[in-house]
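Onboarding guide, step 5: your first structure request.
Type a short instruction followed by the sequence, for example:

Predict the 3D structure of this protein.
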Amino acid sequence: MNPLHKCCLLVIALLASAAAHAGEFDFFETNVRPVLAARCYACHSEKTKPAAQAGLYLDSAEGVRKGGKSGLPAIVAGKPEESLLVKTIRGRHRDLKMPPGAPLPESEIAAIEQWIKDGAPDPRTGPANIAAEAPPYEWAKEKDHWAYRPLSSVAPPAIASKEWNATEVDRFVKAKLDEKKLIPLGRAPRRTWFRRLAYDLTGLAPSQAQLDEYLSDTAPGAQERAVDGLLASRAYAEQWGRHWLDLVRYADTAGDASDFPVPEMYRYRNYVIRSFAADKPFDRFLREQIAGDLLPAANDEDRRDKIVATSYVANSRRFGQTDREHYLTIDDTLDNMGKAFLGLSVGCARCHDHKFDPIPQRDYYGLHGIFESTAYAHAGLEHHQYLDRFVALDPKDSDKLSKAQKKMVELYRIVKKGEGSKPDDPADKRIRYLEASNELTRLRESFPEVPMAYAVSEGTPKQSHMLVKGDPTTPGPAVPRGFLQILGGQQVPSEYKGSGRDLLAKWITEDASHLAARVIVNRVWLWHFGRGIVNTPNDFGARGDRPTHPELLDWLAARFIEDGWSLRKLHKRILLTRAYATASGDSVANATADPRNETYWRFDRRRLSAEELRDTLLMAGGNLDPTPGGAHPFPPRGSYRFTQHRPFVADLDTYDTNRRSVYLIQQRFRRHPYLELFDGGDPNNTTPYRSGNTTALQSLYFFNNEFIHAQADRIAVRAGMAHAGAPDRVRYLYALLYGRAPSAAELAESTAYLTKAGHAVESAVPIENRNRAALASLTRVLLASNEFFYID
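The system replies with structure tokens like these:
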């Protein structure tokens, strides 16, 4: 073929192509562009000032391809059913409905769908005049927020008072009092201080022997010796371990629609208590909970501890009946970790850029990717009733456990599919179904009894896609795994083989240590004084309270890091102060100037927590079991099939214990009624502090509940066996329940009450039990008083 012929053929082909495109463009120009111009351009074009709504420009092909702030293109060529524009104009999107007002006529929608189905040919070849999207935050300004700044190195101020000059902490506190022209109350009596200290550190009333030992110790350093003794007790670890369990919404059930039991969670509870008992450096404590399985271990025991530590992540709440809600479980992980570790409401950025704090939605999904690359242990769901991804504590058991879990998943999927379950199904399918069903039953009943943890392990590394409005049905662009930009913005390298949890643990405890240290120091201060230096302990962001003593907070945080993140040393810095020794009471002038006691001019009286009340009752009754708690008596795994309509519900008689209340079962769906009545920790949400509400139901409980009557009877028996006369028995009760002797008036009134109560029960109680019944009646009166409920 000569060159002339080739040239002619090329021209003919180009003309044919142009004609074809002209036809396609004709459809767009005739049927689509007029609809866009009439219905959409008012809000979504370059003429919209100052910028198109939601960043979506529909007046150019480039704008349509780019999409708006969601990060999704407005159309998917050839696939109208997947196109965001079609979902929006058809009203099928959960959050977006366009245009405003009357919906588009069916003919116009059909034309847009046909255009997309044909490949969305668009003659608008010019570049889109898209206004540059303003950055969501002014980063320089945001980084100047007090919580994100490095720790300041302000020296304690000089003050005139000799009494308040003994510690650096007191100098900060007294300087603020002087600034506000407030005169603090005097010191609490030694007996009051020690009772306050004992409950604070151990959650238990001091024994008479402890109290006598302290009161008789008048040598210098008596207070420090008292603090050291209580910090060394197991009771301290149980009390302060409970504080941490409040923060991380500890529970023994999964929280899904069936609330499946998690028999192994007790290992995490006990790990927390052991960590406090050992004064484990707090930064290490945090790292282990995020990535313990990825950290080097000193020995087998340490390796097991580190695996169990990641139960913190695995214990994130499960939702619904299937695995489709796993993105909500990761959201629970991020929400809790953000609040508990960093004092930031990270979870608010799941659906959009945070409205108040510098946390873009991209940052949320950067963190999300780290946990989407993590395998969470699976305890069971209504439509996935099998165990999976539990982690063996001993390497020799790993293979056995892994094979059993994989086999269970395989068999369950065959049974759930149901092929062969009907009488008229083919014989081969029926045989396969029956064999799988029988084998699954056998495996359930004979699941390997190996020590294992409800923990996490490494999954397949991946990037999370941003979700438009947090909706998993509208995924946007993928986001690299990484940390919050306001705290450094580090990213997991693209070639990194793991999930990145180990990197995240480092970023939180090293690169953002100033914030993590501030958060825990503030919590410890709050748990000692009843209010924090920052009184929004889970929110250090723009919507939270500013610190009342910012220099003191930074000084304590810096010393905490210098002390190797030792909680015990932090306790001592706070407890051995004049501020902590201040009496409770009132001052009209101070209360008028500082009604919330932000300057600590007094020590605020507090109500005992639910656990402290119950443990004190058991101890006073002489039946508190001091041994550590173990696993709960859950039914054998092969015996249950829980569903949404038949969820797991614990029979409290079966799960009751005389051990300390930290060992009580914590169920997500049905909270323990006693703990709920007295404001115990919420197993579904982080609890930064106990509310300490006072209600009529609480008073009725202390008069009428069987537990109260039983304990009052046991206390009465102890008093009756210890002393013969009524006055001595009254003194015994006051010492046991209030830690003091009764006044003369109290002694006389109580003795007279015993006589009257003895006569009142004559007809109903055998004569040999009348004194016991009268003593129990007086005991219930003393238990129901404010002095028993509250600590000065």
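Each response can be followed by summary notes, for example: DSSP finds 32 helices and eight strands in the chain.
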